[in-house]
Amino acid sequence: MKKLIDKFCETKKLNKDELHALLEISHKDREYLSQRAREISIKTFGNKIYLRGLIEISCFCKNDCYYCGLRRSNKNAERYRLTPEEILSCADKGHELGFRTFVLQGGEDAWYTDDIVCSIVEKIKTKYDDCAVTLSLGEKSYESYKRYYDSGADRYLLRHETADEAHYSKLHPSEMSLDNRKRCLYDLKEIGYQVGCGIMVGSPWQTEATIYEDIRFMKDLRPHMIGIGPFIHHKDTPFAEFENGSTYTTLVLLSILRIMFPKVLLPATTALGTADPMGREKGILAGANVLMPNLSPVSVRKKYSLYDNKICTGEEAAECKNCLERRINSIGYEVDSSRGDYPDFRREKHERN
Ligand code: 5AD
Ligand code: FES
Questions:
Q1: pLDDT of 349
Q2: C-alpha distances in angstroms, 20 versus 117, 212, 256, 259, 295?
Q3: Is the pLDDT of residue 128 over 70?
Q4: Under a CB-based contact definition with an 8 Å cutoff, are residues 50 and 291 in contact?
Q5: Burial grade of 236 (CB within 10 A; 0-12, 13-18, 19 or more)
Q6: What is the CATH number of the domain that holds 98?
């Protein structure tokens, strides 16, 4: 196994058998895989972990994804949306706490017209020209993405969820398509965003074959960020009875992704911290280099319920940041609140033009 891992670190390539072997890896060998991934992360980013302030702007969603607690058919969900003023005040608080990246994430909520999104982005970027704005608002047209970009948005997160056609259609109702999801991601890249894709680990019907497709897709897309976390069932969704994804496999995949994409921005997600109380620390030790503390007003946090038992829903922004900082320091890392762009981003942009 050590040989396989060493070869993988050199070639950054995996065939199906090698992926199979890694997904079945023993504890002892996983320790070695983690160590190799961690070394790469440290070589690129030092012992610094980038912090992103997450603002969950709305839990209204027009979509009906079977796994998600915010799906429109969930009649038990308590819905909220933040006004532009409330979003700006979260950014103010975040800036004061030192954050230099704000992630505006929400369901696909038509209340936020393009004009409104652009005006929020412009206001944040004008007030804080040292900050990056990341949007995570779902599938939009090329024109909308372009308008957000021209207003100053720097990055966009849109998990592809699975790159396997049949699997995609088991996770989503028929009005959604993998083609459109991919179209969005390639549009975002073309426009010039730093782009993030990603999957849930252990989502219902995920197999080694679908994970192999995910890796192939990522090699083609060449994302700047990859968000992965375990699937965690939500009681008011059609997937309520499915088993949660495993922390173990999530950690193995984080290491695989770190080795394949040495410079990618790779968060240890809230879902990982929910599945395992030490999940985020373990994620960092497996090669992750980003954490996203919650900046949403405490009054709405519980309502942004993608899955059951989500952590960090009772804490003020400052508490959440301090808690994460303590956790990071305890494993020998330090927080870095700077913008934390993708390492070669400017050059990549320059080369394209
Ligand atoms: N478990 C884990 N992650 C989930 N997401 C949505 N529902 C769940 C769930 N039940 C993730 C999806 C989505 C992101 C915003 O949250 O991958 O893209
Ligand atoms: Fe949010 Fe600990 S990380 S409260």
A1: 56
A2: 43, 9, 12, 16, 39
A3: yes
A4: yes
A5: middle
A6: 3.20.20.70
pLDDT at 347 (0 to 100): 52
Give me the pLDDT at residue 290, please. 98
User: How many domains, in total, are found in the chain?
Assistant: 1
**Residue 201: its H or E element:** strand 194-201
How many CB atoms within 10 Å of residue 235? 14
- The domain in which residue 170 lies consists of 2-352
Determine whether the shortest distance from the Cβ of 69 to ligand 2 is under 6 A: no
Question: Is-contact 171 204, C-beta < 8 A?
Answer: yes
Residues at CB less than 6 angstroms from ligand 1? 67-68, 159, 161, 200, 229, 231-232, 234, 271, 306-307
> What residues form DSSP beta bridges with 334?
48
In angstroms, the Cα distances linking 9 to 34, 47, 155, 259, 321 are 12, 20, 28, 6, 33
3-state helix, strand, coil in the chain (%, to 5): 45, 15, 40
Whether the per-residue pLDDT at 123 is higher than 50: the answer is yes
